[in-house]
């Protein structure tokens, strides 16, 4: 029998739609049935070891993730990393999934506090790194600087994308490994 719990919203007065719902003791088939139900297309789901977490991202979540995706896509070749965006929830559960899948690098961005954490898979868990391994010219501070330019509101997203291309070309080379 599956049991459910709801996560607490991070901000007081947050509407219920911002809460994550965690279902325990969910079998694999039920996970797939829920995932494939068209009525659930707007719900992000994470499943690991019988625990299914249901998340309903807000624009703030999607905007942060989309911007990070554009920043990452600007570099070629596409890196082997996952980006988790936390708005009202906590992506620690999805980090465990990324680890289990063997994703070598994870970025965790907290939209409300504008904090970016970079982690590299070492053994069964992630350890914090001060520079992306997949994109060695990028540090959390540089990524946050690029996101801040758009957040200032002085340019639209299309103009920011053009700015971002030049910004990425002008980044200093990564330091050589010792």
Describe this structure in words.
This protein has 178 residues and is α+β, with helices and mostly antiparallel strands. It folds into 2 domains: 3-55, no CATH class; 59-169, no CATH class. The chain is built from 5 helices and 8 strands; from the N terminus they run ββαββαβαβββαα. It has helices at 28-36, 59-73, 92-101, 140-151, 157-169; strands at 3-6, 21-24, 44-48, 51-55, 81-86, 105-110, 115-122, 125-128. The strands form 2 sheets. Strands 1-2-4-3 form a 4-stranded antiparallel β-sheet, covered by helices on one side. Strands 5-6-7-8 form a 4-stranded mixed β-sheet. The longest helix is centred in the middle third of the chain and has 15 residues, at 59-73. The protein starts with a strand and ends in a 9-residue tail after the last helix.
Q: Could you list some keywords that capture this structure?
A:
2 domains; alpha+beta; globular; 5 helices; four-stranded antiparallel sheet; 178 residues
